[in-house]
Amino acid sequence: MRWLLVLPPLGFACLLAVFWFGMNRDGQGVLPSTFIGREAPVLPDTALPGTPLLVAADLRKGEVTVVNFWASWCPPCRAEHPVLKRMAADGVRLAGINIMDKEADAINYLAAEGNPFFAIATDPAGRNRVEWGVAAPPETFIIDGDGKVLFKFTGPLVGTDYENRFVPALEAALKAAPK
Fold it and tell me: Can you tell me the distance from the alpha carbon of 164 to that of 70, in angstroms, rounded to the nearest whole number?
């Protein structure tokens, strides 16, 4: 009967070991996209007034394109906005898809903070985001010059995760792109 007293602490120790190994494994927090290596999904067919509409042909112009899903009401989107502006200033071809946002709010936000996007599509109801596998903004995709998805990054483009995963993926894509 005394051996039964050992079972709860032993079970607890096993559970702690499982949690510890799970938290320290490689690739935690990475949500693989089923679109990697496949053609980019359908784009919304509406734009913000005064901005060029992002169309499928824009993703097949032979250049790497970064597609960023964002919204003006999204605090992480606001946090990454300076990074997006810096990327655009450095010559990265950056497109935006504004999701689940009010048109006036998005326009006012870009007017106040600057517009880093060469073209923007809007998805006010959030229907097209589902086709891209986007749960919530911000999410960012790297698309090759043929319109194929190379990489998906979930979350804001800030911090060490951005530096350790997104930046190397973008550099590799730009290096592999035809000149």
Answer: 21
Q: Is residue 25 part of a domain?
A: no
Run of H or E residues at 66: strand 65-70
Q: What is the domain-level CATH number for residue 159? A: 3.40.30.10
Residue 36 burial (CB count, 10 A): 13
The domain total for the chain is 1
- At 120, list the tokens: 């923007």
What is the tens place of the pLDDT at every residue in 36-92?
A: 889 999 999 999 999 999 999 999 999 999 999 999 999 999 999 999 999 999 999
Domain span holding position 53: 35-176
CA distance 113 to 8: 57
